[in-house]
Amino acid sequence: MLVLTDLPTCPGLFYGSRARDGVLSRMRIPGGILSVQQCWSIANLVDRYSTGCLQITNRANLQIRELHSEIPPEVWQDLQELGLASRRVEVDPIRNMMASPTAGIDRQQLVDTRPLVKAWDDYLQTHPELSELSAKFSIGFDGGELVSIRNLRNDILLVAERPSTNSEMVFRLYFNSNTGIIIEQSQTISVLAALANVYLEYTKNRPRIEGKKPRLRHLLADWGVESYLEKVETKLPFPLGRSAIELSERAIEPNANLGIHRQRQSDFSYIGIALPLGKLESKQLRNLANLAKNLANGTLRLTPWQNLVISDIPNSQVSEVNQQIADLGLHSSATNLDSCLVACAGSSGCASAATDTQSHALEMARDLAQKLTIDRSINIHFSGCEKSCAQHQPIDITLIGIQIEQGNQTIAGYNIYVGKKDLPFGRQIFPAVTVTEMPRAIEQILRVYQQFREPGESFGEFCDRWAIDKLQKLLSPENQN
Ligand code: SF4
After folding, report:
1. Ligand 1 within 6 A of 11 CB?
2. Gap from CA of 406 to ligand 1 centroid (Å)
3. Measuring CA to CA, which residue among 292, 314, 361, 336 is closest to residue 43?
């Protein structure tokens, strides 16, 4: 029985939301790891109740689109028994925790965060009072993997580090920046619980802000980091450890999980599979699960970059798995243009959208694939409005949907931004580009980058080293041959 008194703004499993293309239901998959059995059940659910596809979200959730109606309550218990639904309905709206999709298998990792993800999910399942927090309250665990989530947005981020050569691994606590707090692994859940409970007390005593529950950033703006941490410390039987060291920034390569990679378990590899805009048919999910069962250890991992990983493939089976992935119409290349796309729901799913982001992104990738190849992954983000739900940080190329007035008509188009220099989207390079003109503009941007970059220079670095007027001139489609 649904017992939510305060309906969440984001869709969940127990309360789908109405989108333009039908009901949208979202499953929260802690850490993104799915067993074969879970994949089969999800594929069956889609076949039975939807005419659409599955989509992996940018928090490694799985959503089912185009449902005829909400998932009926008689199905909930089966999903709960399979670990696909929260044991308590109230817990479902709490945002999925994020971890690297290569946790436990990454050759560079310092800490395997999978037990912590499970322990924190167990804590949430037994503390439903935390559902009073904003549904956007988010926690990320970065175990020091090469496939890192540290540059993705989380209210609370724990990043593994080794303070000195012979010492134990610890986690460093970040809010929007380094707090200077160091947490021993054994203390992690206690500290997270204290952070969440102090935030809960703050929430109870504050009015809503524009109709929404206060976010952690409101607490930090009101109290400041130090005052928050002092209150947290009163709830702990030990003092918080402190370290003033500033960690150096680490460049994060886009799509680092795609392709074939050796695991830290030297006899095994994983393959990161590209899913354009995170979309996956039920048949593909079922077949990938069969592949994972027959030729690997039987798990799929969803990633916050809206693609997935098959892990623990014996090295001798890698070619066979890769071939079967191709037979399913999928690929694992980070430099295929369709691997580079990020898009929000757009006008097919969201009433606020000025443009049909998903169709425009896929059509552009198809069009440009006929004309050029790229040798380094570049992120291209389509957003239907400035809210930018699908991507919270500036990335390489951002297109913000607008309606452009042309005579008596309004037509769909985009403002195009590049680089990471200005927030929130980078620097605007071309305003009001119509949908028809847009692929040509992106083509020129990609060609110029590949032609004029310095050795090893990323797309963001290339754009950010030019003055805006020079960059506009260089990237203009008018200069295209
Ligand atoms: S970014 Fe705007 S258009 Fe896209 S899903 Fe969010 S609110 Fe809707």
Report:
1. no
2. 24
3. 292
